[in-house]
Write a structure and sequence with these properties.
Layout lengths: L1 E12 L2 E7 L10 E2 L1 E4 L6 H13 L6 E6 L3 E4 L6 E12 L10 E8 L12 H6 L3
Parallel strand pairs: 1-7
Antiparallel strand pairs: 1-2, 1-4, 2-3, 2-8, 5-7, 6-7
Amino acid sequence: MHKTKIVTTFLINSDKILLLKRSQKVKSMKNLWAGISGIIEGDEKPDKRAKIEVFEEVGIEESDIKLIKEGDVIIIESPQYENHQWEVYPFLFSCDKREIKLNWENSDSRWIYRNELNNFSTVPSLEKVLTRLF
């Protein structure tokens, strides 16, 4: 079984969380809604990767976010690749800014209340990942 370690990060601002719609240009999970995600490279610490991804995907500096919670790791079976699992490291950061600058990885964004998540077509098990943080 192949495993890929990734971070999935949520930003929260005034009781709303940020969701991003993955673009057509990404390798997997195209057009599905997700948190801010990225592959952990080598021996990199997950919290470092989470902060890097926040900056790369939405243009928010590390100095503008504050760690609220690091959730327990969750293993998710990949529906897209055979014999593959995602080892997900969940993070929740507070953020005073709502203005973001999307990069090529995402095509849309929404600040939503947590109970609105089921109104979106999301990457597999996103609700389970989010539950680790609340």
